[in-house]
Sequence to fold (446 residues):
Amino acid sequence: MNGREQWSSKLGFILAAAGSAIGLGAIWKFPYIAGQNGGGAFFLIFILFTLVLGLPLLLAEFLIGRSTQANAIDSYKKIAPRSKWHWIGIIGMISCFILLSFYSVIGGWIIAYLFKVVTGGLNHLSSNQYSAIFGSTISDPIISIIVQLLFILITIIVVSKGVQNGIELASKFMMPALFILFIILVIRAVTLDGAMEGVLFLLQPDFSKVTSKTILEAMGQSFFTLSVGVSVMVTYSSYLPKNQSLPRSAFSIVGMNLAIVLLAGLAIFPAVFALGLEPGAGPVLLFNVLPTVFSQLPFGMVFFGAFLILFLFAALTSAFSMLEIIVSVVSKNNAQRKKWSWIIGLAIFAFGVPSALSFGILGDVKIFHKTIFDVMDYTVSNILMPLGALLISIFVPLKMKKSALYEEMIKGSKVKKGLFDVWYILIRYVAPILILVVMMNVLGVW
Ligand code: PFF
Fold:
């Protein structure tokens, strides 16, 4: 295993894994998907999926990764040699390739906004003016491609230097700061005139809006926000020493993630309703709402700039994990890491250009009534991630001994047998059945 890195501290792993989980999914994607799917009911179903499927799967990936100490392909090969199970890792790598190709588009938008704030282009404008400026920025082909490239370049540089240096150091300060800023934002948003309607939109479930599509989106969203199903968490936990509690790590990542989702919802929806905006506006929702909310705070643009930096950071730590999983498979040793980071990163950029252009000159190109960007997102979130999750939930109980799983789980933790049993039932029975039912339902199989 030519000198695999290990996280330098217990906290390092948690921060990196949490960094992978917390990103655009909770902050940008959750509000807009919830907005398109009726709000409260979606939120509730999302929480249920996170607890019943996301959490057990996260733990399952941790167990695979730490017990094998190998990358996303070799870990499956170690457990099930001479079989096809390592295709779980291949599907994960393909997912991450596509994922980063469109994730970087949104990452680029953050960079673009940051430039505007720094150059003072956003002072004292109305809500409509903010939307107009943003709309013209993301539809500009040159700008959208340049900022996307910048986002990917940062990702490449960090991953090429080795994953831990880049992530561990900064996370320690960035994550807590993001929480604090979000709390300020929520306080401002819920005290706007007419904000209550938005709070109710998020917290009062209206099940009449729920369809099989809503349920699939909620499931996909719960996998997306936790980075499960694509073996990223297998890869990260393979760098982990044995003295760390896996269940505790999983619980804290899920807890932090849900907290950020709730804060994002409480920051966005009250403002959407108070400002008379449209909750179903799609991917642009967050970017249209935020500047107006910030502009209502004293020193608003300073806060907005700070928020964008933290938001960018949250997006980058997720992006690192997507590139890392691929690079850790294809580079045979640390000397090759740099070369492959660049090759793969630039290939992802090239593949992502049409997604970036789908908010402008390629906006009319539709596949199954969706823009190119939406097709990429849908393929990963609602097909590949659930498929990966399904396969993992079949693989773990089938190919790993129950006693070995228990042994691995209690290393570094004081997990009660009862808790292990609950996890085992969830992963062995509940997860595969539930994922299959949700997926088939949408396909119209029954
Ligand atoms: N969890 C990340 C987010 O919510 O932004 C997205 C993500 C990262 C998904 C890494 C999958 C992944 F492998």
Remarks:
- The radius of gyration is 21 Å.
